[in-house]
Amino acid sequence: MKRNEVKEKEKTDKPSTRRRILGVTAFIAAAAAGTLFLLSAIGESSGDPDKTADDDPPTTRTMKAPGFGGKVMISRDKFEGNPKDYFRASRKGDEEDVGAFK
């Protein structure tokens, strides 16, 4: 074998120092990103340990009040419970008159 061929073979057998540094740096960056991701997920789920699902206020279904062009939101449950009174109040054309349905 010639001297040049031996040097060529040695170069291909061993990764360069730059590649090693690049590989280690990429590994450290990936590990740090993974750690931050896991810690942020744990932080979001921990919250208040004394709080239960029963502590949350009940959700109120709302809807756009008919006749007001979407400017007024009212309780859907109150509206469905007595739509006749809603339309009586809305005929006056004032948002305050339908306030009982909010």
UniProtKB/TrEMBL annotation:
PANTHER family xrefs: ERYTHROCYTE MEMBRANE PROTEIN 1-LIKE, EXPRESSED PROTEIN
Region span, Disordered: 42-102
Keyword Membrane among record annotations: yes
InterPro entries to which the protein is assigned, alphabetical: Egg_app_1 (IPR039926)
Biased composition (Basic and acidic residues): 74-94
Name this polypeptide is given: Uncharacterized protein
Residue ranges crossing the lipid bilayer per the database entry: 21-42
Keywords of this entry: Membrane, Transmembrane, Transmembrane helix
Record carries keyword Transmembrane: yes
